[in-house]
Design brief:
The complex is a heterodimer of chains A (220) and B (545). By secondary structure, chain A is an alpha/beta fold. Chain A has one domain: 3-Layer(aba) Sandwich (Rossmann fold). Chain A contains 6 helices and 9 strands. Chain B folds into 2 domains: 233 residues, Phosphatase 2c, domain 1, CATH 3.60.40; 227 residues, 4-Layer Sandwich (Phosphatase 2c, domain 1), CATH 3.60.40. The chains are: A alpha/beta (220), B alpha+beta (545).
Amino acid sequence: MEQILPFYVVCDESASMTDVIDDLNNGLIDLHQQVGRDPVVADKARFCVIGFSEDAEVLLELSDLSEVTEMQGLTVKSSTNYEAAFTLLKQTIESDVNRLKSSGCKVYRPAVFFLSDGLPNAGDWQASFDRLTDPAWKPRPNIVAFGHGDVDEDTVSSIGTFKSFKADASLSHGEALREFASALTKSIVQSATTVTEDGDVRLRVPDQVPGYTELKADEI
Amino acid sequence: MTGERNLPTTVQPPPPWGDVDGPWIPDTVGRRAKAAEAVWGLDPDPHYPDSVLDHGGAGHIEVIACSVRGAQHRYEGTGRQDASMAGAAGRWALAAVADGVGSVPDSHLASETAVATVIGGLTARIELNGDEAIGDGRGVFADANRGLEKLGGPRTTLTAAAVATEPDAEGRYRFWVGKVGDSPAYVLGTGGFEELLAPDGDEEFSNAVDPMPSHELDRHYRCFQGHLRLGEVLVLASDGIGGLMESEEASDYFARQWAAGPPEPSQFMRHVQLRSRSFDDDRSAAALWAGAGRDAGRAASLRTRPPSPDGPPLARDLELRAARAGGIEFRAAARRGPDSAAAGRPRAVRVAAVEAGPHFVAAVAGPVGEEAPDRDAELWTEEMLEVVDRYPPTERPDEWIKVVWTRVLRRLADRPGFDESALACAALCASADPDGGLDWSVGLMGPIGAAVCGAGLHSELPRMYSPTTYGIRNRPGEPELHFYSERLRPDQTLMIGGGADPSGLARMRGRPAPGPLRTLGLLDSGEAARDRCAVIVWGVPDDRR
């Protein structure tokens, strides 16, 4: 039996990322080094990378980063298809959780770091998002959303079920993406090493991420 | 820019650290647990060693109570938050386990206070009211709750038990278990573990801790009274073991190890550290075997002296520290010897270790002879820790150690009844070289060992080097102080201690570099009757740190 805390990073690979994709990839390399070298974190956390553009693709299957020797990087493609991203994410989580549970693992609620720098321009993404976050679906993930560029605040904050951030132009696009990767690293390390009072594991996300402003959740 | 590319990514895992061979390496269930193989950092508070264990018997009951740091605290160099204790009073064997709530600072103080007050409270009430005291577990928990309130913040779980040391007319052993919080209790019989006072309700939402101190103690306190059959084992555990018990593989493992009777204490400590990937919490278990002491002559008796509410935490029968700090590997261990154990006396030898900048400082002390006051070793060690904290090592450790030593003795001269001639003690200050050597300074007073080991041989310091020698007040008959300051080669190991045999260390294959549990094995090979203690150090070259 193992206790597993799965992290999914879902990244926009649309054309507007052309100048900054290397910053994001370098951030993922740093993340791999830091998480993979920390045996306490690596024993619990699992990490998956999904890239999306006109379509979505699993670039790194849910993995133990201390055992990963090769990671497929993000590459720039064309458009921004949220529907493809959310649909693939739900399928991937479903099959990962089933596989882990059937091998006797105790799986904590998955965490998703969603990064987009443009408005969705294809498909009916809302229906796929509702399926992903359906309260009746047991492994529904906690989502932390990061928005850049053209993406509007309402969209970002509606996707971020746990927290949402919008780039505020205090850093360059590339620098902000580095900070995104660093916040993701911190979140993985802190979530895997801080137990709650009742001995449980919960998602932890830094309160402040340089280059971003946290978006307030809607009040009802 | 389109198309695929692979990112250059590899992580070189470090080689496993600690016990890597023989009967000392903890077993693993499931996949390899990397965190359990990682280097340990030093415990930040010298009063809370990495691992502690109580062991002994009373009447027909034999008890082992053990707490160890989990893999995460070891890797981070943060302190143990679990505590456990065993004891005996009247016709009862006692044990307690507490799990300090990790999200609050100083939770180690809460767990230590909890086990000490509940064992102390049970002892006092049993001495006053005999067997009737067992009906008032709630009162004992209320006392512990008040003690914890005084700490003003840190919180803990507490599970305690008392088992009758003699059977009733039907050959069964009456027992009581009380608990607040989620540290479980089990009866281990032929059918495996059966949990007592198991939480109600949906498993996924049942892990609320509700720790102590509690404003609603009456609501959170739960107890169980029953009878153990001959051969059954009552087991108290912290969540670090309780979480593992949910897996059949792990609970089968513990059942296999403990159902047949009490193992060697150091083996019990090894079992508690069963490696299981992602289970990195502190581990505690206290096991009470019904009938285990029925026939055989007993080697060890449980302590009957209750823990003192003042002073440092009660010295357990066995304690162990191990870490790599900077370029220094060290092990420090102490255990009750057969004489004290047979008499149910507490352990009199003390060992302490602290990191002070680039220096590693350790002290060991013990009484000389049967008549020696057994508080003196603790007094000396406590003073040594305080003086080292106030005057950390300088660039001249050889001079510093003499100054520190003199200050300690001067402060102790005011203590009524303190007698340095009835004390054997040693202090060590070491700092690492980049190439794996160590510069060390050692002070010795009274009959205590200090030896350099390497290449299969060991040599006591006086046979290798000439010490600087002082008298304390230059009066005839008083103990002399001997100081040595030398360099340890990268293939050598230095050991100071009492009652431990350096030849076992010297005979280790390769360089004498024992893992933590192996260090306990070295204490076993020491002189027959005395309490034993040892501090072992060696250097690690820069390129292997």
